[in-house]
Amino acid sequence: MKYFGTDGIRGVPNQKLTIELVTKLGEALSLLGSKDVVIATDTRISKDMLSYAIASGCMSRGLNVHHVGIIPTPALIYYSYKMNYTGIMITASHNPYTDNGIKVLNKGYKLNEKEELMIRRIYW
User: Fold this and answer.
1) pTM score over 0.85
2) Is 80 designated active site?
3) Domains, the chain, ranges and CATH?
């Protein structure tokens, strides 16, 4: 199964976006080289479940997690870049409200194919 689309991982929480999958993603973020992960969300109802699952995976690998709450995606991109942190944006913008998505940034930039492959190979 292909997890990363053109802009992250998208799906219905508790169906495609399971706690197990999202926790594994949090664990996999340790491969990106930053000891810090910043997590931001939009206002979708599943935001807390997904952000805590990712944070749990991150912390299980010794990463420091910073929750910045509800902020626009460009603000997270800028913060991730300036702080040299891995960034996670939990949002599905123009998808139905029942969906959600997870955008992964490596120090302000979308993951490249090599980084996505590394995560997929080890964790899925």
Assistant:
1) yes
2) no
3) 9-123 (3.40.120.10)
